[in-house]
Amino acid sequence: MKRRSMICMAILLFLTGCVPTLDRGEEEIIIVEETDEMEEQQFIITPTIDTPENFYRNVLDESGTYLRSQARGVVAHAMNNRIDINQFEVGLMEIASANFDQSEFYFREGSYLTGETINRWLRRFDPEDQRNTDGLNPPLAEGESDEDQMRENPLVLSNVLEHNYFYGSAEEGVNLGGVVVGLALRSVYYFRTEVVGDDGIVRYHFHEETLDLDEVEEQGKEIAQEVVERLRGMAEELREVPITVALYQEEPRGSIVPGSFIAMTQLGEGETMIGEWEAINEQFLFFPSRAARDAYPNQSNVFSQFKTEVEDFFGRSMGVVGKGRYKNDTLEELSIEFNLQSHGKAEIIALTQFISGRVSENFSSDVPVYVYVNSINGPESIIVQYPENEPHIHIYK
């Protein structure tokens, strides 16, 4: 199915997950706002923006408006923390780039899985309850109490995210080229039970169960097979296009670093049965921390030296934290954040200039480094250094 397209000046990239409606006090009931299914229409495409990140261009509607997923709406308690939601969304686009080249494909938020559909999928499977017959989470088994039943049968799947990728040109129109689906899996199961006291008052007891990550991954792969089969039967254009499925492992609630993708699989045109899974070796580490010291002592020492040099220059201690992203045990990206209490604008300028020099001296020129200088008044300056490029500095006025 072809759709006419033309070049339009615009750029926007907001990705949003979906949230479940669950029973038995396990999660709050969330209502996902729906939009009417769009009729056949023309589309336009955002222009190419030359950045080191090489973001996808976006498919817009004929008026130049960003096309939001029908599952877009309230994002609340589906995943344990906001940084997991962010990484889940952006990381899924990076996974897509392995199969859908940014120079040839255009991005659009998912247009097949509605909020209502995802809500049904995130429920517990129960063949006797019509609301839960599509549930992808395990059913409750026998148990002496609600707590026993929930603890022994945790809700593993927390979120489902769909991305669509189109190919074509301004002259010939665009067509669906593939679908990428992310399945977010819990590492800790948080739930609550109700107890009615002798006084008749209902009291809530809150619990958590740390999950076996190997078992969670296996369940995620089983869920992925069911998701692929359902997608193939949803629409004619989904029967033949390539489908990529990726598993995302969340971090516990309150974590200061996000989780990571742990496995992915690719199905070719018309394929329904998942074959091999490719393991993804990715992790985020916080500096300074014991985990970083144990895993990468040399880089941890470099960060500590950098922190000391900047504090000596500034003449006082300050909040300095770093977040390193590692793939296959190699640093891929480093973000550093400074938090100041009191300062003058001249101090900010001098500090930013000094930090820029120390970044070039201390950290590898092979990875992008992002430095954010903040104060109680908000952002003060930013330093971005890409491989084989001089640092870019911006000081907020």
Automatic annotation (TrEMBL):
Domain of life of the native organism: Bacteria
Name of a matching Pfam family: CamS
Region (Disordered): 128-150
Protein name: CamS family sex pheromone protein
Organism of provenance: Evansella tamaricis
